[in-house]
Amino acid sequence: MVDNMNDGYNAKVYDGPVKRYCQTLDLKDDPELVAEYCRRHGDGEAWQEVLDGIRSVGILEMEIYIVGTRLFMIVETPLDFDWDSAMARLSTLPRQQEWEDYMSEFQKAAPGSSSNEKWRMMERIFHLYEK
């Protein structure tokens, strides 16, 4: 965890434009489970096969933020990225479903769900880019 969230987070810089997907998922309301979920996503804790799989489907960056039991994930991809085909491929990669099952004890989601079934896409309702 960061020492002071008010200092902000560095953003990755790319050679050209990318697109962003924003998703949310709720954790079970149990402080011990929430702490363990965060620990399992800490440095060196996420399984390398899962990280490699995420990258292999074309995802450039993935960040997860938390407040209380609410998770917020930002996924950055190339402009030609196709979400549905990438998620279908991701679900077949080594250890991916095992990781989803491993995380499911913390999440408010049906057991056996894929990542794409658990995380809900968020709708952007405001941006400042051209205002």
| Computed CA radius of gyration, to the nearest angstrom | 15 Å
Q: Biggest sheet, strands in spatial order? A: 2-3-1-4
Count the DSSP helices: 5
Overall pLDDT level:
93
Instruction: Please name the CATH architecture.
Output: 2-Layer Sandwich
**Under the CATH scheme, which class?**
Alpha Beta
Which segments are poorly predicted (pLDDT under 50) over 5 or more consecutive residues? none
The profile of the biggest β sheet is: 4 strands, antiparallel
Overall body shape: globular
For the termini, the CA-CA separation is 33 Å
Domains counted in the coordinates: how many? 1
The proportion of strand residues reads 15-25%
Describe this structure in words.
There is one protein chain. This protein is α+β, with helices and mostly antiparallel strands. 31% of the residues lie in helices and 19% in strands. It contains 5 helices and 4 strands; from the N terminus they run E-H-H-E-E-H-H-H-E. The radius of gyration is 15 Å and the shape is globular. It starts with 18 loop residues before the first strand and ends in a 10-residue tail after the last strand. The model has no long low-confidence stretch (mean pLDDT 93).
Please describe the structure with a list of short key phrases separated by commas or semicolons:
5 helices, alpha+beta, 131 residues, 19% strand, Alpha-Beta Plaits, 4-stranded antiparallel β-sheet, single chain
Outline the secondary-structure elements:
Layout: E1 19-26, H1 31-40, H2 48-56, E2 61-67, E3 70-77, H3 83-90, H4 96-104, H5 115-118, E4 120-121
Antiparallel strand pairs: 1-3, 1-4, 2-3
